[in-house]
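Dear U.,

For the methods section draft, I wanted the exact inputs and outputs in one place so we can describe them consistently. I've listed the two proteins in the order they'll appear in the manuscript figures. Please don't edit the token lines directly; just add comments below if something needs changing.

First protein:
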Amino acid sequence: MTTVIILLLVAVIVIFAVKDIRINLVTRPTFSMFKKVLPPLSQTEREAMEAGDVWWDGELFSGNPDWQKLHRFPKPELSEKERAFMGEQVETLLAMLDDYQIVQKDKDLPKEVWDYLKKEGFFALIIPEKFGGREFSAIANSTIVSKIATKSLTAAVTVMVPNSLGPGELLLHYGTKEQQERWLPSLAKGDDVPCFALTGPEAGSDAGSIPDTGVVCKGMHDGEEVIGLKLNWSKRYITLAPIATVLGLAFKMYDPEGLLGDKKELGITCALIPTDHEGVQTGERHYPLNMAFMNGTTYGKDVFIPLDWIIGGEKGAGRGWRMLVECLSAGRGISLPALSTATGHLASRMTSAYATVRQQFGVSIGQFEGVQEALARIGGLTYTLEATRLMTAGAIDLKLSPSVVTAIAKYHMTEMGRTVMNDAMDIHSGKGIQVGPNNYLAHGYMGIPVSITVEGANILTRNLMIFGQGATRCHPFVLKEMEAAAMEDHDVALKEFDSLLLQHILFAGSNAGMAFVHGLTRSYFAKAPVCGATTVYYKQLSRMSRGLAFCTDVAMLVLGGELKRKEMISARLGDVLSHLYLASCVLKRYEDEGRQQADLPFVQYAVEHSLFCIGQAFDGFFKNFSNPVVNFLLKRIVFPLGNHYHRPSDELAQTMCEHMSKPGVFRDRLTHLCYVDENAGTGVMENAFLAMIDTHEDFKQLRKWQKEGTIAKNLELEGAIAAAKEKNLINETVAERMNQANELRKQAIAVDNFAPGEL
């Protein structure tokens, strides 16, 4: 038996060590199979694969993340001028906003707000100073939008759109010098308001199927005949379209007469068109879930424009899809994560306050374990949201366009925002559902599906983009192997493929072996960049990175092109990658902020939640993998001792609730973006919270006297306070303080009422 094993090992070594033997017995048949099972890529898919950058997602796919590299990424911070803008212009804007009036009555921002936004450069955050813009960083853009969103989602969306995917962003990256000089100064001053039209009735997430066309032809412009485009389009869901003065437009470009060359179909192209240009029609306004931000339609029939209106000029023809994919990072990596993070900050501060102020059965509802479970989830996810916002915007400030990372941020942060808002509504109960000037949750709750839907619907983002792009772009060998398979010279391709295949086999074998060893030893021997309470998390994440890399290789080998259509399978591997990224963001934030001891329970909750989700995703992957033998082997390699990841403990949740329910530095840091308006519901709730905390011991003693019978049990608080004073149990000063706190408490839990006919 030993001799047979030795002979087999020798045979394997010879096959792989001798190049000619390896090529004939291994590489050539594998190459043929690879070309057969290679999933066919459309032109738009190929451009999406090539666009953007691989960043930390590549490390997570490697099976062996370099955690020191994570720690070396610069900490995202605001500059002095950005902090000044936050303290002056943003605070001034927030004081001007009455969100109930905006949404429920006017259905628009007041004129003075529009004027202020334009005058103070809120629409020019990303435009360079030389063109009159603010030239702020991505983290400043994100922070400004987040802060505004805690007061008014309508105002936040209005600010975020010109600073994300739109004419400004596209001009900065791809515009000609003449286009930049023509448009950027007027956009910076607010003389022009931009919108960008991509989505149509038949083309949403599948933007490559847009039916809108631009046909190269000759036409009249400024009194002379020039070569240009005859455009036909019908777009909907376009934010700022009803008031825009300049329209960014995506369409498919054709040259049937060969006026520009031999190519008849040039592909998706983007152009910039003044909305007062002949033939441009601004259609009717949409009303997205009761939100008042401007959103609507735009149409055009046989609209002629010159070629130099194409973004990038004639050289930009057919480059639109790549432009869009790379610039979508602004929406996915800055704007939508900013809105979701705002939800977390607002919900954490107000819900922890409400849970303290609201009483049932004589005690604050924050003492009920059911409420604590939901409140801890709000706090843990808020810490994750802020961590992910910082790291993702930080990547964009590194001049990167990490398409996979921003897709992860868009999907998971909007879903976390939805979870946080649902928990906040559950705890607020009746107060949360009565719309009125003092309801700080209602409009955010209504707007949640907007974030879920835009910039690529969440279902498709999860099922197609995160793993579909991630497995190909982030894998160290797959994209190179695909490029080798596409080479026209078969011999050169085979030679290149042989080199890659050998490295790929060693890569997969290493990941399988280390995943198994880490599973047997509970990652005891895995490396970690730090000592202390978070050490175990780095080790477990490294282990799961090995498991992801190995399972991805096996899934692509067994399923081949079918993996593209097995969305439920691929999405679960995408969930593993996503939670590896989210947990990395949490650990990065904890290190950047100096390992604050008060943060540790939130870090533990966030990472343990991600590890639990990773375990659940792997379980779903194993159970539903088509080949039962492969299924069995994969599970035994990744989890040889079983899947022991669990939800964060109840004890940890209770500790978090204690931190969230105490005024002080930690609560302020956790919710630092939440705008507390002294003249609105947030101010009423915050003041009641502080008053009830200040009188906590007094009310605790009052309840004790009632329980003992010293004071009648059936008295309301006002009566009980009066009885205690009458019996000289408390003095005038204490009684007054308790009555004031109780009055604030009643104001805080009250809901808005309307007289008959007022609505």
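Second protein (the one for the lower panel):
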Amino acid sequence: MRISIKSCALISAFVILLGSVSVVFPASQTVQAAVNQKLLSGNAVGSELFPADAPAIATGASYTWLSEGTHATDPGLLASDESASPDMSDGGNGPDENASNSTGSVVGAAVYGTLIYDLKSVYKVSSVTVWADTNNQSDMDQFEVYASYDGLTYNRVGIQENTNAQDSGFAPVSLAIKPIVNAQYIKVIMHKDPNKQVMRLGEVAVYGDALEPMAILSNNYLRASGTYNTTKPKIATGASYTWLTENPFITDGDLIKFDNDGSKNDTVGGQPDLIDGSSTESDAASTTNSIWGSKGKFGAVVFNLNDVYQIGKIDVWTLASGGNKFMDGYEVLVSTDGVNYTSLSYTTNTSSRTANVFVNTSSYGVPGQFAKYVKIIMHNANNSEILTVGEIAIWGWKLYDASLPKQATPDQVEFTAKLKNYSTMYLDWSSYNSVVNNVNKYGVYVETSSFTSTLGLTPKFTAEAKSIEQLGKYLSYFALKPETTYYVAVTPFQTTGVERRDVQTLKVTTPSVLGGDTVGDIFAINDAPYGGGNYMHHGETEDLFLMTKLRLLRDLGGINKNRWWDHSNAMKTLYGKSGLNFHYFYHGPSYVEADNNGGAYTFSTYNEPDLANRNPASVAAQLKINHDSLKAISSKSLLVEPALAGLDRLDPTKGLNWLDDFYNSDGQNGALVKTYFDVMDVHPYVKYEYPAVPGLDQGTPEKLLDTLKQLKDTMVSHGDGDKPIVITELGWSTYTGGSYLKKVDRATQRNYLARAYMHAIANGIRTMHWYDFADDGTETNNLEHNLGLIDWNGKPKESYYGYYTLIRVLKDANYVGVVPGIANPYYGYQFWDENKNRYITSLWDASWQTTSTATRTATIETTEPGVTIVGIDGSYKYVAAVSGVVSVPLTGAPLFIYSQANVTVNSIN
């Protein structure tokens, strides 16, 4: 049953509620005015490249070549560098081999040189220059720059192409980092031109200036002595905080109850517990506690800093006592408008559980990621009875001085742009000094040709005075077209209404419809806004339920696409503002242009035609008609077919047997049929009747490894093996039945979701839509009523939190491969995240069923002092290595091991 779309007036309410979605993705470029610079990277002054009077700060900086990850340094560069006089900072340039180094000779291959500068302290970093040889045999194609405070969490702050002419020798290539970032660690990834034999590098230099010390931003009371005393620098922000009381992270009521309960509660006259200046917490009046039995529960708090700042460091003081009072870690998210949050990282509490004191679990911000609002989600350990929180202190720096005289002509707007996917772009100009520039409105221009003035152009979006976008200086813009280059500018309007029209544009090129660079492109959902055939309507609260769904979808922070059948412009806008576009059913050419404008470029004709007993030849004929019709309107749009109901050969008329008949209907083994659609679409549900994987329970997602192989073999047999594959439905139901799918409990549904996504990633699946987001009803024995990540009332299930964790862990990662040395029933995959500068190794025991099942232990070899482990259940753990080995218990719930160096599984016992 299809339910009619509500009034478009609902959009206004959602725009106010949702604003624009903030998700961490690599920055494309930035725009900013020039600044004075000093050499920070310790390059030899009085040398060939740097004269004796060159402005420089004696930072004591040094660099190391990164030999891990997807951009590991070529061995030739490592071998040709000199440890006594490092080539990249000796002040000398090529062609002398004593002043340069070179990669090995490989034509047509991706080769990198990745170095990390440690500036030994935090500085303002304004530019990076690389000297690289350009001739008929050697060239650097481009370089990327990442910045970090702690050497663990990075943010890409720029990329620069090498535009030097052929035979220009060891010439400089410079990147201006815009806006300027504060950082201690600078990672530079230099890409060899794949058409050249080698990449020869002469020098790398980092420029910037000194920076004042971090100051307290969170309005903590400064006591006469102690950690937070009157000698500490503090900015009078007037900051305050509130506890979160709605899903998905509801603070335990006692944490709120015992916080800030009058003058008796802090020993200094009524300051809220989290900012009363007490870090020793010797008096219970300076702390707040959850209720006994709060295992695995949350304490979530949002600080309002009242202006935008660069976050430097965060202190979180909690009690570690007796083993049953322990916060195992927390997540930090930041926002400029209080609506759209970006996750910075997870931080694990590495203290002893039995320290019997308050311990500080510190974390750091991300350079170039600014914040007015800081959300901290603390997780009580799964076996901890009480979460006891003392002080939280947020440190950082001012971005601008609002007390300066107002300018008659406003500065150009400096901004960053980050692509979520091919259709959604996030613009952030929150470091712009709107007060001094007397600006209260902004124009956003997005064009396909470069421009230097906005005269004659119409803004694609206007951030009006007092709008969410104007106040937050942040915009989620949709919908862009795939594989298209855009030129973007943000212009200031002064309160007089006058716009500064001269601009420096930012160039952004979108990826293909099926994805960009990271495995996070796979994350998608099925969510019919107003329900489907088995749906129980919410009556008068239906719109409220839709608002709840959109907020929870947005909070997942990485869902790219939703699958639906109705072409409503209202829904395109609502979901687009939450960062999602649509995969639609194809209903003819009249819808295509509007759908493209709403970000939709994938379409399907059928849903499970084999299950519906549709004739394969008739389906093929219709697909040819639809494909020709679709491509005539939009060459970039993709026809995604046929959405098979299963990948088995149990029934001669269904599944892969139906697919054979479909290909063979042209009489040429599929030579024609394969041209009738662009992407293979399947619904590989692990059905009740499928035989189990040996040694595993029936219905586990490990069956996907066999069924997807059979699908690929079938496609190859018809000459269609190169076609990309998507999954538009897959899920497990928490129902009490068991006639079609195996029934699972909520924890198992969560585990299966994570395992299924990782199997799909390893098999090259481009997009996978989980079926579905919300339960369709409340009947416990109804399969369709229990497939959701949230229940019919909008309350998240364990699978919602599992998807949340999976997205946080893998969204920005690259797939490396299968973990070697393990076999069924043990599974694992390895990933590399350039932003985290770490490997992520997943492991689980697929034979594990319940807590009564024997738990296996993986013995893992590492060269690091210890590893951090994030569980799909939301847990955090630091495991110290003993003689280079850590022991990790395995269950059916995947865990993720973070390590800067590769780890090896020695055994599983």
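Candidate sentences for the figure legend, describing the second protein: Residues 1-34 have pLDDT under 50 and may be disordered. Residues 616-633 form the longest helix (18 residues).

Thanks,
Y.
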